[in-house]
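Exercise: predict the structure of this protein bound to glutamine.
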Amino acid sequence: MCIPLDSRFRGNDKKTMSLNIQQLNIKSALQSLRKQEFSCVDLIKAVYQRIREYDGQVHAFLTLTEETAVAQAKEVDRKIKHGETLRALEGIPVAVKDVICTAGVRTTAASKILENYIPTHDATVVAKLKAAGAIIVGKVNCDEFAHGASTENSAYGPSHNPYDLTRSPGGSSGGSSAALAAGFCLAALGTDTGGSTRQPAGWCNLYGLRPTYGRISRHGIISMTSSTDTPGIFTKTAEDMALLLEILAGQDSKHDATSLPAKVDDYSAKINTSLQGLKIGLPKEFFEDVSHPASREVVDAAIADLEKLGAIVVPVSLPHTKYGVPVYYIITPAEVSSNLGRFDGIRYGFSSPEAMNLLEVYTKSRGQGFGPEAKRRIMLGTYALSSGYYDAYYKKAQKVRTLIADEVKQVLNEVDILATPVSPHPAIKLGEKADDPLAMYLEDIFMSSAAMAGIPALSVPAGFVDGLPVGLQLMGRQLDEARLLSVAQAYEKEHNWINKYPQL
Ligand code: GLN
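Solution:
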């Protein structure tokens, strides 16, 4: 089911038609706004014009915030006209994943149980975007509670990949990747618990960053797996990523006890560091499972290009990689079963009108409110945590998690970064794996190591196979996002794949 877009969005505004949002990025839009090449109202109107025209096919948005966006744009234009000081993201349209709370704006987590939930507070990432002058365009689709890898677990229907509408834009932050690739915004926020930013970025020709765990506050993001959840950032250039990370990173001592006290790097200044002598580890286990030879060739070619830029490629081994997915799918459901306990039909969210007594308030509200994947994870997690199974599953998984994390960190003492494919193949067809949860879980095969280790990882657009984007994943040491961005930037200077826009 699609939530229909507001009928006010019909009509044609000829003036803004000429503004090609797909050709813009944050940096170029900021320059043009400042030089008054177009107004912020023109920009925002062009965004909604495009959404009206194409989101019927893409289905990226669950909620639009046009009225406030246009009002904000007018204020930006006023400031520009009067020569007032502009903030770092003044007037930049951003889409926000619907698991991230926005004060006064419906936040559904793509679930029926939160269909009418309107938060009273902004997530820290949203507050920071607003404080920097960004304009929130709307809330974007995802898998329900971010459980999934294709957006097909959304209670509101899947999103479509702008490069091929019969395919998935990835997941769980597939509305974020689809919206940015389709030219509905200039950046998007997602989350990455076990790949949900990197994989959709890879499938949609975008940069997608999973920061170090704790680098960006999780406050106000509906929890999935609290021990691996991170906010995620989608951009069209490495420079835009550096800028957004600078704005969003930092300790949130008031609201997120797991946020790190480390100083925020000047990512934009460090982005042009040379790759001369940089040691790039290639973990062989990540290359053995690429089922799609043409994708492997794209990734190999990107790595060869990094070598030409002065990097030294070192073969390495991470033998515990094969346990990443099984361990993740014990720890994640365990934490999910606990985190989803707060949706009880009493405090907030959907409450079944059919309930006749207290027990039914729980069972009917949850039974009718949660979709099949959320229920599956609650059951798996409850089982893994139950007495008698706790030691055999949960505790064992935690031990193996430590082994995976130690091994990755150990190898990252020997090399500066790791380079791997993002996915074993390009975007899958919608429906291809929707009925096979295990096959869908295996989509995370190259994603779980960074999640288990809490290290930063970045998807970099690396080329195309049969018109479908292929991503290169870079993983780095804790808090070493700057290095990942400098590698991405050096590569982008040679190959600007982002200019290959989807034809809608
Ligand atoms: N695909 C993974 C899952 O379904 C990752 C989800 C995420 O990162 N939010 O759990």
